[in-house]
Amino acid sequence: MLMSFTRNIEKIFLLFPPVRMFHENPQQLLSPLGLGYIASVIRNEVDVEIMDAAVEGFDQKVRLDKDFVRYGSSYDKILSRIEAFKPDIVGISCLWSTVQPVMLELCREVKKIDKDIITITGGSSPTFMPEENMKEKNLDVIVLGEGEETMLSIIRHMREGRTFADIDGIVYRDGECIITNPKTKWIKNLDAIPFPARDLLPMGLYRTVGIPHSITASSHNSSPIVTSRGCPAKCIYCSSTNFWGHKFRFRSPENVLDEIGELINRWGIEEMQFEDDNTTAKPSRAKAIFQGIIDRGYKINFCFPNGIALWTLDEELVDLMVEAGCYEMSLPFESGCQQVLRDIVKKPTNLEKARNIAEYIKSKGIRTTGFYIIGFPGETKEQMLETFRFADNMKTDIGYFFVANPLPGTELYAIAKKQGLLRDDFSFENNTYTRSAFNEKIHPKGELEKMVSHQFLKYSIRSFFRKPLLILKTFFFDLLLKHPRKTLGLLVRIVKRNTSVVSGQ
């Protein structure tokens, strides 16, 4: 509780917490660039330490209940690091709503070390659910949206004994009161932000574990990179546009290329994973980046785990990407029904153009992964089957099929809540893309889960006969050998679901 705003802030401990996730989902590692950016901005004013508990304890897994597990460093190890560092502020990242219980529990534990430590969180979940998070009295401040300038303001305000009343985009405690300062300002010049403080991250551990966001990679020595913030599209299932202030902002090609050079020359990175929500939203900028990789002679592979906006691509851009080192593209078709895309999802994808550019991508030897979502409110079963037929015709190397998931801050959640479509036991912290959050007003219980499981299994079998070596590498060498129990367990659950589909259960 912020009884006084006056504090000589000297040390800040930034924590990427252990990950709580649905037990069927694969473990992934994504070095916390958000914390890296914050550290790079404040490190000239304070002593900063970053702990990525997810990678440090990647092999330490705890079964929490029948549905959820948590992996990462033990709480004892995290708290001992904090106690040894003696920080004035502990900032805990909370990217996903499923991690919210972990973040709040750690706030409680931090206060047991020293009640005067200021606890701060940020990320998608706290930004869109501040009231729920602030019910935890051991959480002092929520940073809404991007946090670099906000953290700097918090440090300076406390050193000067000023209240937080004029800090943009925070929720905080003042005695017993909870005060919200809405987010109204965003960083205009992203080039002004220093590169993430990767020297404070365990870069060697990411290489040792070797499982990035995309699960598979061309090299264990890979790193994520973000070149823009936001997306001009307004898809109902995505909160990105809202989180980044309904603006699309981007770094200059020169600034991006300089960071790529640092990744190669300083860290020996052999693969980049573009984590932008929409890397190619401005095609001319994207072309300048990929042409720059070629002109500077950078030898590096890259892919797009978050997907590539199909409506932004043309053959010239694809050719540049291939020449620059692109080896894989995730193609987020989402639906194979144009009406669903236009009237329900509100995604600006023309399926005919998407089909044509996807065929061109495949002709260039690029590995392709298709993303599909079914079960949106208002979507019929026939339209879902149309999506499956579209996927079968596209023949991407791998196809992933998900159940529509109402995330915090999305239009999809607002629609579902307004129409009373959510299950009685729905909670964001237990939400997952592998099972439906909707009640039986839309679809019979379990139907969507069975549909996506059946389609995934059928699609994977067909993919195996098309490209057996690729499927063996992805599911055997990259998953089964590294995580045998988890992969086998997932396969058993998929088979069980498909057995129930066949038997009509």
Q: What is the averaged pLDDT score?
A: 91
Strand composition percent = 15-25%
DSSP helix fraction: 40-55%
Strand arrangement, largest sheet? 3-1-6-7-8-9-10
Largest sheet: 7 strands, mixed
The number of helical runs is 19
Query: What structural class results from the helix and strand content?
Result: alpha/beta
Low-pLDDT residue intervals, each spanning 5 or more residues: 500-505
Write down the Rg. Answer: 23 Å
Oligomer: single chain
CATH class of the largest domain: Alpha Beta
Number of domains: 2
| The CATH fourth-level homologous superfamily of the largest domain | tm_1862 like domain
- Outline type: globular
What is the straight-line distance between the termini? 53 Å
| CATH second-level architecture of the largest domain | Alpha-Beta Horseshoe
Strand count: 18
Reported by name, the CATH topology of the largest domain is pyruvate-formate lyase- activating enzyme
What would a concise description of this structure say?
The chain has helices at residues 33-42, 53-56, 75-85, 100-113, 124-128, 130-133, 148-159, 203-209, 240-243, 253-265, 283-295, 315-324, 338-345, 351-363, 381-394, 411-418, 447-466, 468-480, 484-503; strands at 11-16, 19-22, 47-52, 61-63, 68-71, 89-93, 118-122, 141-143, 170-174, 177-181, 222-225, 228-229, 249-250, 271-274, 301-303, 328-334, 367-374, 398-403. The protein has 505 residues and is α/β, with parallel strands linked by helices.
